[in-house]
Structure formats: structure tokens, C-alpha cells
Amino acid sequence: xxxxxxxxxxxxxxxxxxxxxxxxxxxxxxxxxxxxxxxxxxxxxxxxxxxxxxxxxxxxxxxxxxxxxxxxxxxxxxxxxxxxxxxxxxxxxxxxxxxxxxxxxxxxxxxxxxxxxxxxxxxxxx
Length: 126
Hints:
The chain is an all-alpha fold.
């Protein structure tokens, strides 16, 4: 069997990259369908993560996490929403507004949420 040429290797890599882009695009479509058509909290959270990491659309990811927390009480989205509130990313920073989302996330045994909630109580009590 002949050794592949440089052009053949590059063509194969290009095809692989094209397939990967299509796969990522399809994941976004699946998350949108699950969130907007099926109203699934897990899909809305994954769509928020997708918007944040892949599309770099922080405003939309903030809105998805916020709505998924406030409407569906999805713990992972509540935690992400609280981190946006803590850092003032796409919103005004607010300790008071981040308490309720952290409480929802912590009550579902999400350890980072409980840690942040404990830290806030320690700061405000001390």
C-alpha cells in the first residue's frame, strides 16, 4: 500500500474538520429543539452552555440560564445564573439577586452552589 501524499492527508483532515463542524452545528439544533419545542430544562441548560462556549454569545447564554432557573428551577442553570450575577457578566452584579438561584442549586445538592452560598452567609454574618 502506497504512502498517502501530503495533498491526500490535507484533504482527509479538511473533510474531518468539515464533519466536526457539522456535528457541532447539529448539536446546537438538537439543544434548541429540546429547549424551545420540548421545554426541557436539561436541553435549555445545554443550549446555554453551547451559546457560551461555542457561539460566544454571553447575552443569550445569560438569558437562557436566567429563564431556565426562574421558570424551570433547573439547578445547574441556577448556579450558572448566579455566577453571571456575581461577576456582573451581561447584568449588574448583585449578591442579593444571586441568593435565590444559589439556594435552588444548593437544595439540589450542587456542591459549588452550597460553597458559594456558605461563603456569602459567612461574609454577611461576619
